[in-house]
């Protein structure tokens, strides 16, 4: 929501450095890197529900802080901490899905879950562009807090959400039946084992990244492919305002092409993923790598989209032509994200699903935070045509990765470090 008028903040705070200006948007993604390291393992230990509620409150508090910031450092700190708290749904969501579904049901569930991450980055800038144009950039944060705090979403969360982690649910039921069987007090004989378990849980996402090369390769491929789309999101305002003369509000509408494509990808994935998995099972091909079939099929759409968008915008064709190009990128990026999350849950076990998904979320967020920092220098040096072509060639390098896992997944997935 904030991205379309980030330049207003830069003007208010006297920011002239392009990297710092881009960091105003992407610092949130650095919060999404750090948050999962703590949120995911804590959800495995203490349950999903308490983390959802606490992180929701913290997110709202620091988002409100962004709206009253008086300087660059203050804004960056609040924006980063809001990102840390905002990582909770993205991180714990995969664990919740694993808690309440079987492998043959997870495709549809993951598709529904992905609607939030899809509509947020695509519809937020549309509203944010008009809000910032009318009443200033600070209101993009205030409106977000008002909608979340006083809207039906937060109320529904408090009323209807329930704990799904099996061991926590069982513990609550046991205590309700026999209050004497509560948790051991501090200093009890179980404290050392509890501390070891906590350390193991906290280190699990990093161990997956550092000591599972095959999983790291897949996570890197997804992070790069998916978050190239985030680089585009940060450059849309300048491209469509400077190249096509759009106003701030109208420039926000340029996000809709990617948003519609992402929604289409979610619908297709939700309706076909589980059926495709069942088809593999009937053929005797029962393995977690089957979750990657759709990713392998649609991965080439990402480089195609970059070539299309870059040269269409560079040559000044009608504005609808580059927007169609962005739709290819959005479509392919969704088929990079959703199948891999299901693969991680199925391949490494659902017992610590949130931590498995966290390893993927961390790398995606690192890429999302760093890639936009090179966007403006890249386009300044190479132009829209060759700049996006370079991104397209880089995306092309990762196209074989899902095919590699789909074909040799059982061999590549032998190390289970967590």
Task: Give an overview of the whole structure.
The protein is mainly alpha-helical. The chain has 2 domains: 1-107 and 125-165, Growth Hormone, Chain: A (Up-down Bundle), CATH 1.20.1250; 199-417, Growth Hormone, Chain: A. It has 18 helices and no strands. The radius of gyration is 22 Å and the shape is globular. Residues 172-177 and 179-189 have low confidence and may be disordered.
What would you say about this model in short?
The protein is mainly α.
List the helices and strands and how they pair.
Blueprint: H1 6-12, H2 18-46, H3 48-67, H4 72-100, H5 106-113, H6 115-135, H7 138-150, H8 152-160, H9 166-177, H10 191-211, H11 213-244, H12 248-252, H13 256-282, H14 293-298, H15 301-314, H16 320-348, H17 353-397, H18 400-412
Helix pairs in contact: 2-3, 2-4, 2-10, 2-17, 3-4, 3-7, 4-5, 4-17, 5-13, 5-16, 6-13, 7-8, 10-11, 10-17, 11-16, 11-17, 11-18, 13-16, 15-16, 15-17, 16-17
